[in-house]
């Protein structure tokens, strides 16, 4: 943990070494923090993100998720997922650590989202985004278990009938 005061700017900066995904030691320098605490938090989160430690905050994991999925998903899909996560997931779980989120908290989150009066289709879509995040964490980054698997899913898909015109009509 190494945060330093920049006397000329009056801000804080961090300078630290970490091991990247290739196994090579790399130095990182980031400037412009208002407080020492912000600088140290940045360093801690950065190291967790590069180590894929599930003690990272959900905000950080969402960034990792989109980095992993950028070649797999279309640009519009990524934009839609990001909007939905930023609107419905980050306000509730953004600063929570991934491995500390419990099924009981997922149920409380579901109840809060349901109270907003969204359609069943939209509720299901929101739930799918949350489940996808935890599945990715579980399958790729060795999260112990997905708390979404232990609770009932919210929303359901409404089956809309397609109406065709017959020749007589």
Q: Tags for this entry?
A:
169 residues, alpha+beta, three-stranded antiparallel beta sheet, 3 strands, elongated
- Give the helix level as a range of percent: 40-55%
Main sheet?
A: 3 strands, antiparallel
The SS-based structural class is alpha+beta
Q: Helical element count?
A: 6
**End-to-end gap:** 75 Å
Structural shape: elongated
Low-confidence stretches: none
What is the arithmetic mean of pLDDT?
A: 87
Radius of gyration: 21 Å
Q: Roughly what fraction of the amino acids lie in strands? A: 5-15%
Helix/strand order: EEEHHHHHH
Widest β-sheet, arrangement of strands: 1-2-3
Strands, total number: 3
What does this structure look like?
The protein has six helices and three strands, in the order βββαααααα. The chain is α+β, with helices and mostly antiparallel strands and 169 residues long. The protein has a three-stranded antiparallel sheet with strand order 1-2-3, covered by helices on one side. The protein is elongated, with a radius of gyration of 21 Å.
Topology:
Elements: E1 3-6, E2 11-19, E3 25-33, H1 36-51, H2 58-69, H3 75-88, H4 90-93, H5 103-114, H6 120-141
Quick summary:
The protein has 169 residues and is α+β, with helices and mostly antiparallel strands. It is built from six helices and three strands, in the order βββαααααα.
